[in-house]
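Record type: monomer structure entry
Structure origin: computed from sequence
Chain ID: A
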Amino acid sequence: MEKKTMMRSAETGPGPSPGGAAEAERRLRRVGPVTLGLTIPRRWIQDWNARAGAPVRMRRTADGVLVVRISDEPEIPGPARISVEGGAPDEHLLRHLVAAYIRGAPRILIEQPPKLTPAARQVIHTFLQRTVQTA
């Protein structure tokens, strides 16, 4: 059973101040087998008027600083195009499908000349079963 702990943050303010940027110390928490999560101070969430499910953009700078932005307008990616090479391992197709799914592609187009092989169709079928929820 996971031990729950209470944490206090050292907040210096909800947003950038004239003398410097706001800071808070947090611990990474395990939220899945390979996923870590980070909580954001409540005051910051209120000041940003953020909601659960809001798109968040992250960028790591060359000096190791993590920049996090809450965006009003989600960036909607275009359709993903996956071209399956003849003789490529099935894992490559699966990796491309997962990458497109994680990027949030609204549509994934898969091409394999002259037509999809039965093995490629099976990979696609398995991927869809694992990711697409049906009511």
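Annotation 1: The CA atoms of residues 59 and 67 lie 5 Å apart.
Annotation 2: The longest helix spans residues 90-103.
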